[in-house]
Amino acid sequence: MALKKVLFLLFISTLVQHTIAQTSTNSNDFWRNVRFGGGLGFGLNNGGFNASVSPSAIYQFNEQFAAGTSFTFNYAKFDNDKRLAYGASALALYNPVPFLQISAEYEQLRVNLSQQVGATTFEDNYWSPALFFGLGYTNRNVTIGLRYDVLYDENRSIYLDAWMPFVRVFF
Nearest Cα to 125, choosing from 147, 136, 109? Predict the structure, then answer.
């Protein structure tokens, strides 16, 4: 069922991008507004570590609004638990003023969990959704900020905490 959500998300994203390209009077105008980049995430706590890399592509509709897709690779280690996750997301970025960026991102990750209990290793594979709302300081191409996962589940999330700092770069 979750795989259908990811495929649906990718389909909608592709459809939106195709529609924008079709309405453009010149196909080169479309590509002038596409920006590539991505984000990095990192978290540490007592007994835990989390890092993520998310290459992204967005369409810059105007000076204030952009939307696009991202692919995510994430690794986390909590005591004896290891989690490897990968998936996709759809994101929207809004700059009400030039230095402030508000973001929303829906992410769907496939999680591979490995847990060591004594001499026994338990494994579990599942889908984990996240819905982030973020706020960051931006200086044209780079945004540094903090985001919050409103769907955070302490037992199933790949992330250490619902709060997560981020660095996002687009060119």
Answer: 109
